[in-house]
Amino acid sequence: MLFLGFICGACWASFCGCLAYRLPLHLNLGGRSCCDHCARQLRWFELIPILSYLLLRGHCRACQTKINPALIIGECLSGLFALKLTQIFLWQPLPLFIHSLLWFGCLIFLSYLDYYTQFIYPALLLPLIIHRFTIITTTQILISQLLLAGCCFMALIIISQNGRLLGFGDIELLTVIAFCFDLNYLLHILLFGSGIALIFILFHHNKATKKHLPIPFVPFITLGFYLAQF
Ligand SMILES: [Zn+2]
Fold this sequence. Notes:
The protein is mostly helical and 230 residues long. It folds into 2 domains: 1-117, no CATH class; 121-230, no CATH class. 66% of the residues lie in helices and 0% in strands. The chain contains 10 helices and no strands. It has helices spanning 2-22, 51-55, 69-91, 94-117, 126-135, 139-159, 168-180, 183-203, 207-210, 218-227. The protein is globular. The two termini are 20 Å apart. Zinc ion (ZN) binds at residues 35, 37-38, 40, 60, 62-63, 65. Zinc ion binds at residues 35, 37-38, 40, 60, 62-63, 65.
């Protein structure tokens, strides 16, 4: 069952990656994927998450162009995230599973979207906010969650230095996290997410880093979100 969860997570990441790539470019959402370099349509075995990358040794079968390793990393991490979700499904009550499933689905998609475009659609955060409203039991909890979200938003706006240090999409996502969870969980997410992002920046000495190109932070928030559960 846990293995099945891992496979489902990897497949969801593969699907999200494809959708997040095609959607902003207004490409046809149907049809089989192609190689980004030679535009050759991929065969069925080249579409299997993780395995296809290993079988092809990270290169296109026709033009030998290197396949982006971020894709297999994303699929593996999404698989691990789904593994945790399967544990919740097996041992925890159903509402908690639905809650986690919603966050898992959104965060993986938003991570890929941010990775490809450095932009997230704010409308995608609405299901998370609506779901939180449906499970709030008292006005006191609602007020405290709104206060936490408001403080988080203001603090991040100040820290972001007009979008130079932190994108507005990241601020929106972290504000929604503040509204849906408690301060302790939010701080853990920030700690793990920022820590891993810092390690990535320190060790990722490529052209993008040297040219000070923006680094998508949502994938790191997602990683922090996953690690903060332990
Ligand atoms: Zn190719």
